[in-house]
Design goal:
The chain is an alpha/beta fold. It is 31% helix and 24% strand. It has a single domain, classed as Nucleoside phosphorylase domain (Rossmann fold), CATH 3.40.50. It has a 5-stranded mixed β-barrel with strand order 5-8-7-6-9. It binds hypoxanthine (HPA).
Amino acid sequence: MNIYQKCVESAGYIKQLADASGAIGIILGSGLGNLAEEVEDAVVISYKDIPHFPMTNVVGHAGRLVIGKLNGVKVVCMQGRFHFYEGYDMKIVSMPVRVMKLLGVRSLIVTNAAGGVNRSFNEGTLMLIDDFINFMGENPLTGENVEEFGPRFPDMTLALDNNYKKLAFEAAKELNIDLRKGVYMSFRGPNYETPAEIRFAEVIGADAVGMSTVPEILVARHANIPTIGISCITNMAAGITGEALSHSEVEAVAKRVNNEFKALLKLLITKM
Ligand code: HPA
């Protein structure tokens, strides 16, 4: 069974339980998962019940789809995502975005926790993903093109929707949030980068580094889903302050910024 057929079966199962057509898809990154708890009239579907969905193993990632209304706007939240470093194939990592496409999702918001490379950022900075660098050495669009979703050679100049970027800055201004913008560079992980890798990232134009999101953006662009991405800078990247990095620090900062990040998303979706 090819990836398209798998996505059709996954979407078919979800459609029996909830109607997500016209919804905004939201992939909730580390520390943001609790936004799904605010979804009203929620239909909650465990990944383990969806045909062909793998399970998430990362602690702190719930592993379920939450479909309902947030601030009056129809949403499909992914509470927990799949990471390449967990050992999944890129096609599996990005598959939920294709399933969302088949569900009739009209836009996508991708979020993550990331390390700050831009020295003007701080722990807790929110960064709009203006552009990205795929440094994972892999691509979910490799192999026979899935024509049902999109073209062989998809454009990436407009991968992140310009109008949504404007709306995000509008929303941030209204909330008095100092939203920054920058280039997100994805590494394979699971180790945090070395200081030398971060100096390299800085030289080639990255403002933030992380281990997710790029596969999902690539597949969304291929399937022509207007997309916006926002990173929470949970730590300055390796070598910048000289301190060792730890997942618990990343979690603590994500938790501290949680309310602000949620407020931004909740206002943004009303404008999209
Ligand atoms: N590097 C990669 N991924 C991350 C980081 C980082 O410094 N912080 C949070 N996710």
